[in-house]
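Minutes, project huddle
Topic: does the predicted pose make sense with zinc ion bound?
PN asked that the exact inputs be recorded in the minutes so nobody has to dig through chat later. Recorded below.
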Amino acid sequence: MDFQEKIKRWLEDCGALLTGHFLLTSGLHSDKYVEKFRLLEQPELVSATCAEVVKRFEGERIDAVLGLAVGGIVLAYEVARQIGCRYMFAETENGQRVLRRGFEINPNEKILLVEDVVTTGGSVKVTLDLALSKGAEIVGVAVLIDRGEKPLQLPVRTEVLLRLPLQTFQPESCPLCLQGIPIERRGSKR
Ligand SMILES: [Zn+2]
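Predicted holo structure (tokens), as shared on screen:
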């Protein structure tokens, strides 16, 4: 079993892959939803997932791991713990991705970005720009699940552990709405 199948099995087993009728943060509807925290709440699965990230970047010098709040914090911490380096996280403040809490990226530091789930990759791109603006050297980006319709494209090395394209519908042409199935709001409110 390759890692992609393994992680999919873990997500299914821990109840992270939901089927129903969901209103996504983007405003689109979907019949599937990934509740990543079913995986992230299990330290042994987080540890095994992060071991795969560490393996893929083996041999690279990494000074710090940068996670994207909220889910990426858990992953960044564990990846950094296994590598034996520093970790920090970028969070959203007034619509901007920022480093708070005294976190600093020093010029020429080698940084690995870690994110849990991406759809369009917008947050990752903004955080990448943030790190580059501080003079970081980006070793790469590791993503747990890419659920975009098209694979995530970044100008740096990108390691996606699981590709899981989700079909989305415009509210006005959603087949689930037409069937009168009640909708459930999921995801972070912005
Ligand atoms: Zn709908």
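Observations noted during the meeting:
- The mean pLDDT is 94.
- The chain has one domain: 3-185.
No decisions taken; revisit at the next huddle.
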